[in-house]
Design a protein that fits this description.
It contains nine helices and seven strands; from the N terminus they run αααααααβββαββββα. It has 273 residues and is an alpha+beta fold. The chain has a domain of 184 residues. It has a five-stranded mixed sheet, with helices on one face. It has a two-stranded antiparallel ribbon with strand order 4-7. A hairpin with a 5-residue loop joins strand 5 and strand 6. The two termini are 29 Å apart.
Length: 273
């Protein structure tokens, strides 16, 4: 309840407002908060409130995680997370989509028959997981490429050359691109942290400088931002069997420069300097 009060959230209301722009609280919100607390608490060993979480790996139920390297900071920093990168389709090289554009979708609607079996096996369980979590839902539109702008495809990345993952190819992102406020820093202009830290340390080396870095994690395929109902068709996509899906949260495949830099600037505005 302290967490709910801190976040100014309620799991129920005495009076429910009949306004579509003011959604009601979900009945699982408390369950989700507890799960998030248990997950994050493992990484804060010296905080009293997380002591109950720290005891879990030593219990019978938590013995599978007792020797996990994810709880060892030194071991964890040597391994890159097994997840796809956040880069949207707008900033991926054209050759990244060669398999889709040259072998599967050649401008006709018969791509279902040409969709590779291994792609199907890789991405359909991911789509099912998103549907079960409420992140996507059936789109009430005609499942045609001229109506639905995205296609669910599969691909690998340089750091995961043997692991196919879901990448949504959007045909256009122009209509979403808007001018950024002057105070925003374009994500392509974010500073390189290591050189900046070294310069700072060289200047203040006699004072033993220390640094604190806050890095936020988000899901590989989505930013934690809810999509307004009128905008959901713009982030809809077709799956391998040509079903149309709409996203209730912001797809990283659909992102553009405004969205990708907004994440950084929104966090910077909320973190005390």
């Amino acid at each position: 309840m302290e967490i709910l009060n801190c976040l100014n959230l309620k799991i129920y209301y005495d009076v429910y407002v009949r306004d579509p722009a003011n959604p009601w609280p979900h009945r699982y919100i408390l369950q989700d908060i507890v799960q998030a607390f248990m997950t994050m608490g493992l990484f804060f060993p010296n905080v009293e409130v997380t002591s109950i979480v720290q005891e879990h790996p030593g219990s019978r139920e938590g013995q599978a995680f007792r020797n996990s390297k994810i709880l060892d900071p030194e071991a964890r920093r040597q391994v890159r997370p097994d997840a796809r990168t956040r880069t949207s389709c707008a900033y991926r090289p054209r050759k990244f989509w060669d398999g889709w554009e040259n072998k599967v979708y050649t401008g006709d609607d018969l791509y279902i028959d040409k969709f590779p079996f291994d792609w199907n096996m890789a991405i359909r369980p991911i789509i099912a997981k998103f549907y079960r979590a409420g992140m996507i839902g059936p789109a009430c539109v005609e499942p045609r490429p001229d109506v639905v702008p995205g296609f669910a495809t599969a691909n690998t990345e340089q750091h995961r050359p043997d692991k196919l993952d879901l990448f949504i190819m959007y045909s256009s992102t122009d209509e979403f691109v808007q001018g950024m406020p002057p105070s925003f820093i374009d994500y392509r202009d974010w500073p390189e942290l290591l050189p900046a830290a070294r310069r700072f340390a060289a200047i203040y080396k006699t004072k033993t400088p220390r640094f604190a870095l806050l890095r936020l994690w988000s899901a590989p395929h989505f930013y934690p931002l809810m999509m307004l109902l009128p905008m959901r068709q713009a982030v809809s996509f077709l799956d391998p069997v040509r079903r149309a899906w709409e996203c209730s949260v912001y797809s990283k495949g659909r992102a553009h420069e405004r969205m990708e830099c907004t994440q950084h600037n929104d966090v910077a505005a909320r973190v005390p300097s």
